[in-house]
Amino acid sequence: MTAAGLAPLPSALPLGLARGALEVKRFFRSREAVVFTFSLPTVLMVLLGSVFGDHGEPAGVTSSQVLAAGMIAAGIMSTTFVSLGTDIAGDRDDGTLKRLRGTPMPAAAYFIGKIVLVAVTTVAQIALMLAVAMALFGLTLPATVGDWLTFGWVFALGVTSCSLLGIAISSTARNARSANAITQIPYLALQFVSGVFVTPITALPDGLVTTASFFPVKWMAQGFRSVFLPDSMAAYEPAGTWELDRVALVLGAWCVIGLVLCLTTFRWRRGQDG
């Protein structure tokens, strides 16, 4: 009890975890959100993988396996950048953010709740995509500890950078309806120019590959290909190697850029609310 006879308010962490549980329940109760979030990357992977078929790459790996490895990046971007961008814009549009800001709840608790939601949905998304890729395309799980460690840090940096960018882009949407278009256009465009939908990436024009190199998706996909594909496939990357040091550098830089954008652009209220 405090001097005033009142119990102290819980800290941001337990409040955030409690809010995260509510966010997860709300998400899975929305059939439309669940189907759209999980189905788009998986359906695209199945359709494109079926189109590519089992045509062998020069290194003895099928085109569908190369696609599946890179599509993990698309799954992460779907559950982070797209979902957070639209979800937070919706919270702002319906006044949820404004009301939360007027309560004693620490602002950090709201974002911890979103982190919990992203963690649960992203793990579920990747597990679904890997299960489908293993069943349909013969993709195999990493065989060494080193590959699992690479998977872990590429996953962590990819989720962090895309989540921060999703939070930042939510402030550019005028309302909840426009948020979907604002997030989907870069989501789909980056999959094409980053070589996720085209195998190998060197089949793309040099200008597109150069453009993609400025964004995180290309490097996430390259990092995951290094985990799930044999080392001989590195020869078909633009630099002829996996460039894992550059993967870490670019994804780390986007984490910093995303954080700066969040801190400088995030709004708790709609523009017309003042």
UniProtKB/TrEMBL annotation:
ABC transmembrane type-2 domain: from which residue to which, for each copy? 32-269
| Membrane disposition | Multi-pass membrane protein
| PROSITE patterns, per database record | ABC_TM2 (PS51012)
Q: What residue intervals traverse the membrane?
A: 33-53, 65-86, 107-139, 151-173, 185-204, 247-266
Q: In which broad location class does this protein mainly occur, judging by the first location in its UniProt entry?
A: membrane
The record's listing under InterPro entries reads: ABC-2_transporter, ABC2_TM, ABC2_TM_bact-type, ABC_2_transport
The organism's superkingdom is given as: Bacteria
**Keyword terms:** Antibiotic resistance, Cell membrane, Membrane, Transmembrane, Transmembrane helix, Transport
- Keyword Flavoprotein set for record: no
Q: Which residues form the signal peptide?
A: none
In this record, what's one Pfam family? Answer: ABC2_membrane
Compartments where found: Cell membrane; Membrane
Q: What family is this?
A: Belongs to the ABC-2 integral membrane protein family.
Q: Any idea what this protein is called? A: Transport permease protein
State the species of origin: Pseudonocardia humida
